[in-house]
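Journal club side-thread
Mid-discussion, someone asked how the predicted structure for our own chain would compare to the paper's figures. Pasting it here so we can look after the session.
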Amino acid sequence: MSINRDKKPISFSYNNTERCQSRCITCNGWKTPADVAKDEMSTDEWKKVLYNMHSWMGNYQFIISGGEPFIRDDIFEIAEYASNLGDTVNVVTNGLALVDKLDKVLYSAFNNITFSLNALANPKIHNTSRGRDDAFQRTMDSLQNLNYMNKHNSGHKWKNIYLSTVVMPSNLSEIKPIAEFCKVEGIGVSYQLMDNGDAFSTAVEKDEQIYNKDIKTLAIEAIEEMIELKKQGYPICNGYSQLSAFKLLINKPEEILNIQCMVGENNFAIDPYGNCRICFCMEPIGNLKESLPQDLWYSQKAEEIRDKILKCTRNCRLLNCNFK
């Protein structure tokens, strides 16, 4: 696949660390060995990458993720640097490291702040999914206190606050409680469907079913509930096309391959070590400590990865890489 030289990426995800205090069942980043994590880019290296990205893209927006991005104390400095260039900086957090940083977050350069929360009515579900017993309470404390400060404190840049909920067989009954909570708090929520609690890392093998019969029925009901709640005005950020497509993973997973994967044309991801990817699941197209981003984007290696993407049979096409 040869990309037009005028075509630039439109979705940017920058992972500043793989370190994390959680032990999530939907992520393997926290398993990164310490001798690998020590090679994360320095503050100055991140600034150089951000400067080169801005020089190529002009004013644009990106999201900082992890791991847990607030584990790095320089995240505020990096966000401020990018904001001063003219870029819009968003972040995804588990909230665990924010309890004593809320003032700093409130007056930071971040525009959108998304908290990961997998359950509300039954906190144990969230704690189990995050691998620690205090995850729910600490996340909720950070989320609600920041939201209150955002509404009532003066002199800061307004923050758009969201929840991101990984939908698994264990939390199908949590769809409405989370949506109701978001409506009351005046924040948004994005649901992301996962197969049996695992991230979309491998396609479902042959005749294996993603859900057993009972769970399959409950999952379809949960997705239909999402659609109905959105129609009623609940602040659900997923588009109707994505919510409808969720049913494919449960009813007809083979039809997911009919959804065109756009990551090769749209996505630009940077990991903590400077490696650049156009698909999270495939090898890097190069390293930004050694090359300019535009040189990697139009490189022969990038074209090879785009060809692989066209032939890919993974079942991750329902992720936000392809739906906004």
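Post-session note: The CA atoms of residues 112 and 160 lie 5 Å apart.
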